[in-house]
Batch of 2 targets.
Target 1
Amino acid sequence: MAFYSSAAAGTWLKRTLAAMAAIAVVLLQTPLALADGINADVKRYLTPDGPAEVKLDAQGNSARYSGEALTRGRDLFMENCAYCHANGLTLPLPPISLTLADLAGATPPRDNINGFVTYLREPMTYDGSEPSDWCRQVPESWLARPELEELAAFTLSAAEKVPGWGSVPSNR
């Protein structure tokens, strides 16, 4: 004696297969997005035409960063910075964000790789007058210089190219 009809079994099978397909898409999405070692958002916004050119120092020199390097920088940002700097905002100190204008307005400027890394090694207040308690110091034992450069390159590239980076969305 059957507890359900063959039509019900067919419906159950279709729903089960559809659910399994949906789960497979979700599970496979991340590896596919990183199949070439580049995060999908990094590829879309930061490196759609190849490596990103990022300001290296106050003299205007620049360095090129691949999608892979910016993906590593993004991962470091997400692991270490996003809690206080979601989408380029500065949650503990909202008037100062991670926009290029705000980074350039700091003393010394943080709108370049060297200035940004220097700040992370020894955080100072926005006007540069004293050590800052708002951002934690990142010693070499925690992140090596190349890692900090990739984190800085991601942040500066996002500030330049990601729509809405460092700004609060309006309700309009």
Target 2
Amino acid sequence: MSTRKALSRGKRTGDGLAALQHLQCLHLVFCDRITDIGLRSLSRLQHLRKLNLRECCKIADVALQTLATLKQLQYLDLSRCESITNAGLKVLPPCSTCSACTFHCCDKITDVGLKCLAELHQLQCLDVSGCDKITDVGLESLSKLQQLNDVNLHHCSRITDVGLRSLAALQQLENLNLRACREVTNAGLESLSSLKQLRRLNLCSCNRITNAGVNCLAALQRLQHLDLTYCDKITRAPVMKMLSTLQHLSELKLSSSIRV
């Protein structure tokens, strides 16, 4: 019997899923008629480890009460479930086995919600890209999750250098996406230079960064992927110096105005 099930753009409402009690992986992407009531049947799927509810637009906070009962759940994607709020995140138990959560464009989530997520002691990967109400206060909450290794803050436009000082406490961090975090400056990169495990860094459209910030990146000796597109204050010379230092760098993205 298959332990995986994928449904998309369907009219399923959750009926019948309860019979698949050995299911481990369930994708219900774009199933826009599924509601909180339909998801109640998932509480019987106690072997479920991966659940993708991306763009199931009728799902709201009540659904998270059901999901909190799934004791083996490791991966949860609620991208563009725009009715999810901080109140829903409060019901997720601290003992949850969930190690990866995606809340892309769940724009009702604020710093209060991040404080709730910081109680998920197994969390390693967090995507809150497009949650533009999140500020530095929320990142301070995350700083206690020492096992976090992947954080996506793309278009969290209120994040500043103060928040990056909090992220610098995450010494296991390998992947960090700060694309379009336009308040980030060289001071923030100086804080990030202590992240010795960092392998992937996206600074696209962080257009307050200058050559001094690029010099800070030379300390990231394990860096493999770096995106500096639309960082228009950067010039060629510091980039070339950085390239001579970062021996593991395999991918570098620059704007066309910078010729290497």
